[in-house]
Amino acid sequence: MSSHYVPNTKVPTLVFPTSSQAARHVALMIESLIRQNNSAGRPTVLGLPTGSTPVGLYRELIRLHKEQGLDFSRVITFNLDEYYPMDPNDLHSYRRWMQETFFQHVNILPSNIHIPDGTIQPSEVEDWCMRYEQKIRRAGGLDLLVLGIGRTGHVGFNEPGSTKHSRTRLITLDPVTRRDAASSFFGEENVPHQAITMGVGTILDAKKIVLMAFGEHKARIVQRAVEGPITDAVSASYLQQHTDATFLLDAAAASELAAFKHPWTIGPVSWTPQLIRKAVIWLSLKLEKGLLKLSDDDYRENELCELLREHGPASRLGRHVFNEMMGTICNTPAGTTPSTVLIFSPHPDDDVISMGGTLIRLVEQGHKVHIAYQTSGNIAVFDHDARRFADFVVQFNDLFDIDREQSERVRDRVLTFLDQKRPGEPDSEDLLKIKGLIRKTEATAAALACGVPPEQLEFMDLRFYRTGTIAKAPLHPEDIQDTVKLLEKLQPSQIYVAGEMSDPHGTHRMCAEAIFEAVRIVRSRGLHFEVWLYRGAWEEWEPHEIERVVPLSPEDVEKKKQAIFRHQSQKDRAMFPGGTDQREFWQRAEDRNRKTAKTYDLLGLPEFYALEGLVQWRG
Predict the structure, then answer these.
(1) For residues 161 and 238, what is the distance between their CA atoms, to the nearest angstrom?
(2) Residue 399 domain flag
(3) How many domains does the chain have?
(4) Which residue from 6, 99, 311, 398 has the least number of CB within 10 angstroms?
C-alpha cells in the first residue's frame, strides 16, 4: 500500500502505511526546500514542533545531513511553544529537547535557533511575545511549519477557545493536555499549568503547513479537524482555511475518516471481501439488528445499494458474514496437539492484561507456554514502592542473619537519592534496578497464577528501553538479534505479539518492530510458525478486523483478574491515556472482553460471557 490522498476531506489529507514513511516524506519536503534556497543564496525559515510525533522526522533529517550532506547553515528555526515557567536546562524543557534530539546533530547556527523562553518574568511575557512575532516577520515569515495535534485538537498549545487571529502569547493548558503530559513529567502534579505558544494567526501566516498525526489515539480528533466544522473548539480545524496546508497521517490516525470507516457513504467503492464484511457488520451494529435479520430495505436505506446490487440479496450477505464470524470462535487457539507457544509482552504486564484468558487456556490445554518480557517496565514503578522494597531487603537480611552491611549501603544510596530527587528527575541506576526487580517479581507471580513456571519466562531487557525516561532510543540491532536467538531456541508453533501501535515511538511499536524483523529473518532460514496479534491495554480490535476470538467463562475472567492483580505496583497507574478513569487494570480488561462478547451478541452470534480477540499477522 502506497501513500494516497483521502477523498472528501476539507483539507488535503495524505495517508501513509506507517508513520516512518510519513516522516520520511516530510523530511524530503524539507530537504528539497533547503537545497533550493541554498542554491539561490536564501535562508530557509522553518517552524518546528516537539513531542513524540516528529522524532522520526528529526532522525531522518539528521541522516540526510550526515549521509547526503544536507546543509543547515542557512536554516532559521522558530519553535512552536515551551512550557512556562521552564528552565532551559530542565529535562522537560523543549529547548533542551530540541538540542538533544535535533540541533546538536546538524550544522545549524545557534544564532538561527529561536525557542520561546520559559524563564522570562511574568511582567515581561507580553512584550517578549511581541518581539518573537517581530523576529518571525523579519526573517521573512515561515516557509514551512510542521505541526502535531493534541487530543483537544490544539496545534502548538492553542487550546479550545483560541481564536483565529490569536498571536504568540502565554496560555493556560487544558486539563486534558496536562494529563496527556503526565507520564513524561512522572506525575500530573509536575506538569506546568501554562505555556508560551505561537498563536493560530501566527500559524496561519506560514506559507506552507504540514500537520503530522500518528496512532489510533489521534484518529477521532483528526476526523473532527479535517471533516468537521471550523470551530475554536478544535484549533486545528482552522487549517481548513489555509491555502497550502496538508495533514499527513498513518493508517491508524486515519481510521475514523469517512473514507476509511465507511467509504461507501462518500462514493463508489470496490467491494473486496474485507470491505463487504466491514460494511455488513457496520450496518448490523448501526441498526442493532442481527446479521441474519437484515433486509434488502436496510441496505437501500443506509447507502449500501451498490453492495446489495452486486452481492445481494440481504439474506445471502448476512449468511456469508455470519458464517465468517462464526469461524472466528475458537476454543483451542493452538490446536489439540501439545506444542510450544511463545507470548511476547512489551511490558511485564501486557500478557495477562491483554490476553490472560487465552494464556490460561493454552496452559490448561497442555501447551508449553513461554513468556518473553521485552522490557523491564521499570519507569512505571512509583518511588514509594522502591523505597519500601529497599528497606525490606535490609530487614530481610537482618532477620535471617545475612550480610547486612552491603544491603544497607545500597539502601542508603537509594534513600539519599530519593530524598534529594527533584520532581520529574530521572532515576539513579540503583533505583532503576530496584524498580526493574519489582516488575520482574510481579511478572513471575502473575505468570505462575496462569500456570507458567519461572523457568519458562524470558526477561529480555531490550536495549532501546534502557534510557530511564519516557523517551526511548532507536531500536538496537542487537534487540532484533536477541529476538532471533529466542525464536530459534524455542522453535514455537505459535507466537503472540502486542499489536497496539498507537504511539509511533512507544514501547509497543518498538517491540513489535523488533519481533517482525526477527520473524522475517528466521522465516528466511526455514523456521515457520503462526503469528497472532493481541491488542494492548487501551484498545480492542474492531469486530470486522477480528480473525479469532477465544471465549472466556466467568471463571476464566476471574483467573485472569487474579493474575493481573499480582502487578501491585501498577494498581495506581490504571488509567486510560490522558483520561480520568482510575479503575484498576483488571476491571478495564474485563470490561473490554465483555464488550467484545456483547458485540458478537448484537450481531446475532452465540452469546458469551467474555471474548479475547486476535488478528493474524502474515508479514
Answers:
(1) 12
(2) no
(3) 3
(4) 398
Question: Has 159 been annotated as catalytic?
Answer: yes
> What residue numbers bound the domain in which 578 lies?
340-377+431-617
Question: Is the Cβ–Cβ distance between 33 and 206 less than 8 Å?
Answer: no
Q: Which of 60, 82, 133, 159 is catalytic?
A: 159
pLDDT of residue 195 exceeding 60, the answer is: yes
Paired sense of beta strands 548-552 and 610-617, if any: antiparallel
d(CA 470, CA 463): 14
Cα separation, 460 vs 474, in Å, equals 16
Is the pLDDT score of 582 beyond 50?
A: no
Do 86 and 165 lie in one domain? The reply is yes
- 578 pLDDT more than 60: no
Residues 51 and 156 in one domain: yes
Task: Specify whether 214 is located in the same domain as 304.
Answer: no
Q: What is the mean pLDDT of residues 23-45?
A: 98
Task: Specify the pTM.
Answer: 0.87
In-domain check, residue 441: yes
Cell numbers linked to 276 = 463487504
The Cα–Cα gap between 29 and 216 comes to 25
Task: Kindly tell me if the per-residue pLDDT of 184 is higher than 90.
Answer: no
Cis preceding linkage at 554, omega within 30: no
Residue 468 lies in a domain: yes
- Rounded to the nearest 10°, the torsion over CA 449, 454, 456, 457 is 90
Q: Please report which residue ranges of 170-326 form alpha helices under DSSP H.
A: 175-180, 200-204, 219-227, 258-261, 273-287, 296-300, 305-311, 314-326
Per-residue confidence (pLDDT) for residue 536, from 0 to 100: 66
Cα–Cα distance, 20 to 13 (Å, whole number):
17
* Residue 426 located in a structural domain: no
CB count within 10 Å of CB 95 equals: 22
Which of 212, 244, 259 represents a domain boundary (last residue)? Answer: 259
Cell of 447: 505468570
186, 314: one domain: no
